[in-house]
Design brief:
Layout lengths: L8 E2 L2 H18 L5 E7 L2 E8 L7 E4 L13 H5 L4 E4 L9 E2 L6 H14 L5 E6 L1 H11 L5 E7 L9 H13 L4 H11 L7 H9 L3 E2 L10 H6 L4 E6 L7 H11 L4 E5 L6 H4 L1 H10 L15
Parallel strand pairs: 4-5, 4-7, 7-8, 8-10, 10-11
Antiparallel strand pairs: 1-9, 2-3, 3-5, 3-6
Helix pairs in contact: 1-7, 3-4, 5-6
Amino acid sequence: MRIPDRPSAFTSDSARDKYYAVYDRLLGELWPVPVDAFDVETRAGSVRIHRAGPATGDPIVLVAGAGGNTLAWYHYVEPLARTRPVLVVDPLGEPGRSVQRQPLESGADVGGWLTDVLAAVGAERAHLAGFSAGAWAAVEQQLGGGGRVAALTLVDPGGFAPITGRFIRWATVGAIVSMLPRALRRRLSGAAGNGVLREDALVELMRAGFSFRRRVPIPSVYTDEQIREVSVPVQVLLGARSTLHDAQALATRLADIAPSWRVEIVPGTGHSLPVEAPDLVVERILSFPSQARPVITSPKHS
């Protein structure tokens, strides 16, 4: 594993200020409900949280993936906040309003700052939902003995397969296509297998974030023993065409070693599952763990 020796950061103060200007404008344009923004201190830096929904109840905590932050979840806030408190986190190590002050050298460090967040907001039985690297952070929080979580939803999670050239090519192509004119970018989003490229606001934010230097450890692949250590109810949603892993192979592995986990392969989606099927993900979060029976759905052939 590559061990970062410095915190993630913008390349300059002016680059940071330009990013914040885009972030703040898009938050005002996209955020669908009243929101309370505040910062909490953790062992590795200050974390920005956006809170919406009822004042009481067990919260749903949303953690974005690599390069993402609060805005990645803008489709989710209104439907989730109708019935549950919702806390959306700008992850440390990613571009956003959180400020990392200490290096994140291991998965334990990543899980540690997330535990600090849950403690700071007084969560005791949170439903922790993460995408990609955010899902990896959620599992690390559990492996670190952080508690405070009643259920996990892992959306096309990192940490369950090695990072391959296939995934790196997918990410690189996405970054290149994001720089194209809007009409061409949207037309090529299907060929690139990346639904984010149809999201004009998220693409604008991604472009602004090219000045951010991300220094976060690359997840190691979880062993069978580590997966079995997770004691709370878990559901895993996998993109059928994900480039991060072989969805069917991962579903089969999890069915064998963690039969209590609910596993679903979502047809017609890739690694950008959260923006390609937001209604489905919202429904799965709200209905879990009451529907905790394991499910493996094979991808449909196009």
